[in-house]
């Protein structure tokens, strides 16, 4: 009897003290969370993680000329892709396994967006 009462009391206490992060997604303001983040992205990198190639796809071109600079996780510049088309493939033959950071920049050097991708070999 005491075990049952303790279990019920414990369950009620846990249910009444749920942290805010465990609430449903519907309580989040619009534009937040993973769905809202993708709506504002200019460049999409896929597949992630990548093994042989990664594709960079410009979502909103607006007749601008973009370039992508790729850095390894230590901050060393690894690659520089200039005059990007709407979809550009980057071969990963000379890349090691690990995390890489890319920056999408306009031709004048203004940072537009940054992101990361993982290489798995």
UniProtKB/TrEMBL annotation:
Residues 1-22 form the signal peptide. Coiled coil: none annotated. Keywords: Signal. It comes from the Bacteria. Pfam families: Por_Secre_tail. The keyword Transmembrane helix does not apply. InterPro entries: Secre_tail. Residues 46-111 form the Secretion system C-terminal sorting domain. The keyword Signal applies. This is T9SS type A sorting domain-containing protein. It comes from Chitinophaga pollutisoli.
């Amino acid at each position: 009897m005491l075990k049952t009462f303790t279990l019920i009391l414990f369950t009620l206490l846990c249910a009444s003290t749920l942290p805010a992060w465990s609430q449903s997604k519907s309580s989040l303001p619009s534009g937040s969370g993973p769905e809202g983040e993708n709506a504002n992205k200019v460049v999409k990198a896929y597949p992630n993680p990548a093994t042989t190639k990664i594709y960079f796809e410009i979502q909103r071109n607006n007749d601008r000329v973009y370039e992508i600079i790729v850095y390894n996780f230590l901050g060393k510049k690894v690659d520089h892709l200039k005059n990007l088309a709407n979809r550009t493939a980057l071969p990963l033959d000379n890349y090691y396994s690990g995390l890489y950071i890319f920056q999408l920049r306009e031709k004048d050097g203004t940072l537009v967006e940054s992101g990361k991708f993982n290489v798995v070999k």
